[in-house]
Every structure is written in structure tokens, then in C-alpha cells.
Write a structure and sequence with these properties.
With 96 residues, the protein is α+β, with helices and mostly antiparallel strands. The protein has four helices and two strands; from the N terminus they run H-E-H-E-H-H.
Length: 96
Amino acid sequence: MLGINEPPVTIEQIEYEIAERAFGEGWLRPMPPQGRTGKRIAVIGSGPAGLASAQQFNRAGHEVVVFERADRIGGLLRYGIPDFKLEKWVVDRRLA
């Protein structure tokens, strides 16, 4: 946005405020599957792609196990993005 009458606001700030309000007001809730298929899926790696695919498999009703070689899950979100860009408590809250 242009900062003509007031200080400029970045898209990052807008997205951050929307996400914080969504968590604060309970708009983001777990979406458990309607039923289970009895199939088990192994996802190797807990980076953004691994977590996104695990979420989709779980929503489809499959039992999902995520394997990660690091001591904590999150992959690039946790270890590749510095704290001043993405604080780790935000990652932990979403993973919970």
C-alpha cells in the first residue's frame, strides 16, 4: 500500500495479522477425516512439502507417519528460515 496519508503496510504484515486473528478467534481448527481407510502412509521429511502431503493423506483417511532425521520436525521452516523472518513458536503452534 502507498504510504501517502499513513505509514505503508507490507503484504507480509497483512498476512501475519490475518493468520494471528484466525488462530485467536478459532477459525483454524483440525479437520479430522470422516473415516479411516486402513491404509498406512510413510512420509520422509518434515519440511513444507512433507507436512503438506501428510496433512492431505490424513484428511483422506490414511494413517500417516512422518519420518525426520533432525531432532525436531519442520525442515526448512525450522532450520532454513531465520527467526526474524519466521519465529519458531509460530511453526510449533501450527504443528500442534
